[in-house]
Each structure stands twice: as C-alpha cells, then as structure tokens.
Amino acid sequence: MSDTILIQDHGNWVEITLNRPEKLNSFNEEMHVALQDALKLARDNRARAVLLTGAGRGFCAGQDLGDRDPSKMDGPPDLGQTVRTFYAPLVRLIRSLNFPVICAVNGVAAGAGANLALACDMVLAGENAKFIQSFSKVGLIPDTGGTWHLPRLLGEARAKGLALTAQPLSATQAENWGLIWKSVPDDQLMTEARALAEQFANGPTLGLGLTKQCIQAAAVNSLSDQLDIEADAMKTCGESADYAEGVASFLEKRAPNFQGN
C-alpha cells in the first residue's frame, strides 16, 4: 500500500494516519486511493472501530493545490470531477461504515481536511487545533460535505460566516459551538482518542453501527418515518448476541463481553 497512508492494526480496531507531513497531509490522488483502500480493508476485515489522524504538525490541509494548478495545465481543472471521483466517495464510505469512525485532529484542519473530520462520527481535537473553511480564499465552495454538515451542526448563520470569511475556528470554540465532540490538551489527544477507539471496539458493534445509521437517517426523515426506522433497528438489536450478553451481564452484575454481533 502507498506510504501516503500509515495503518496500525490494533486487533479489533485500526488506526489510520494521513502521511504527507511535508505537505500538511494535503490530498493528492495517491493518498485518496490509499485512504479509501484502508477504510475498505478495515470494513472487510470486520474492524469494530477506526481512528483517523494526521502525521506531523497538522491533520490535513485539504487538496494539494499543486495538483490542480491551472497555470500548469492545458486548461482549467474539472474540480467537479475531482469531487465526484474522490471526495464524495470518501464521505459516503465513512458514513456507510457500520462502526464508529473517530477523528483525532492534531493541528490545522483546513478546507477538505476540516470537512473530512466532520464526516467522521466523533471528532476530538487538540486544544491548539484549528478548523478553517479555506475555500473562499481560492474562489471555491466548501466541498467534502461541508455545505451539508456545517448548517446542520451550527445553523445557517454560523455556517455562512465560517464559509464566507474563512475565519479559523479554535478547537475550544468548535467544541462550544457543537461542531466537534471534545477539545483536549494536545499531549493527551492520541491517548484519549485511542482509549475511545478501544472502548468502541470492545462494545456492542451492531448496536453502535445501527445507532450511527439511525442518527444519520434522521437528517432527511420525518418523525413518523424515523420511528419506523427505530423499530426495525430495535428488532435487529433485540435478536443479537450482544443484547443477550448485555442483559445477562447487567443482571449478573459483571462486565459485559461483547462480540460485536
């Protein structure tokens, strides 16, 4: 596999690191393909959680603009095709995975890098991290799901403010606004993120995955439709070995031993 991505197998969960630190882990086509391959491998190997982070002093600076420089091309780049080929499938893949995907944001998360983090299920950020919707600085719109996630997480006013001004948002403010799960001291980021991945990987994976899918579905469903989805999901959970183990461990006053099914 490409060295633009590092993979550490922890048994029942996988740590994936974006590894172009000299470019602030900005995306080129090679890294796009490698990241999608790594996520698919985790899915196919029945991982029960994934932790995504970046090497070096930043999480991800978005697209490597050197790869999309009009002055070095015969004509203007088709950025719509770039989104359709790389960024949109990546977001869809993360959202489709039936286990939690945790993002540990170390340093800057800018452009598509910021919105890649928001596509994950839980985001922890070091206290010195910053989220920057930098698209307007180069005449673009927030892609990688940015125009979908920002207003749903923050409301229209704050979403437009961040997108139109490209003003950096601190990790503390991101937590206060509800954009991310938690801001933690930089030196504790990976310890806390790995502990969370371990917790999820030893939890009731079927139920966690269905919780993720139900919450995501709520964005476009009526209450009545969502109640039906909840009933179907509860039926599936109620028939699972993890539910039986959860009830048994509760009644027997012991720690559960979930198998993820």
Name the structural class. Answer: alpha/beta
Instruction: State the strand order across the main sheet.
Output: 1-2-3-5-7-10
**Name of the level-1 CATH class of the largest domain:** Alpha Beta
Briefly note the CATH topology name of the largest domain: 2-enoyl-CoA Hydratase, Chain A, domain 1
Strand proportion? 5-15%
| Largest beta-sheet details | 6 strands, mixed
Amino-to-carboxy terminus distance:
30 Å
Give a topology summary:
Blueprint: E1 5-9, E2 14-18, H1 29-44, E3 50-54, E4 58-60, H2 79-96, E5 101-105, E6 108-110, H3 112-119, E7 122-126, E8 130-132, H4 146-154, H5 156-165, E9 169-170, H6 171-177, E10 182-184, H7 189-201, H8 205-217, H9 223-238, H10 241-251
Parallel strand pairs: 2-3, 3-5, 4-6, 5-7, 6-8, 7-10
Antiparallel strand pairs: 1-2, 8-9
TL;DR of this structure?
By secondary structure, the chain is α/β, with parallel strands linked by helices.
Q: What would your notes on this structure say?
A:
This protein is of the alpha/beta class. The chain has two domains: 5-201, Alpha-Beta Complex (2-enoyl-CoA Hydratase, Chain A, domain 1), CATH 3.90.226.10; 205-251, Orthogonal Bundle (Lyase 2-enoyl-coa Hydratase, Chain  A, domain 2), CATH 1.10.12. It has helices at 29-44, 79-96, 112-119, 146-154, 156-165, 171-177, 189-201, 205-217, 223-238, 241-251, and strands at residues 5-9, 14-18, 50-54, 58-60, 101-105, 108-110, 122-126, 130-132, 169-170, 182-184. Strands 1-2-3-5-7-10 form a six-stranded mixed β-sheet, sandwiched between helices. Strands 4-6-8-9 form a four-stranded mixed β-sheet. Helix 1 packs parallel to helix 2 and helix 4 (146-154) packs across helix 5. The protein is globular and about 65 Å long. It starts with a strand and ends in a 10-residue tail after the last helix. The relative contact order is 0.12. The model has no long low-confidence stretch (mean pLDDT 96).
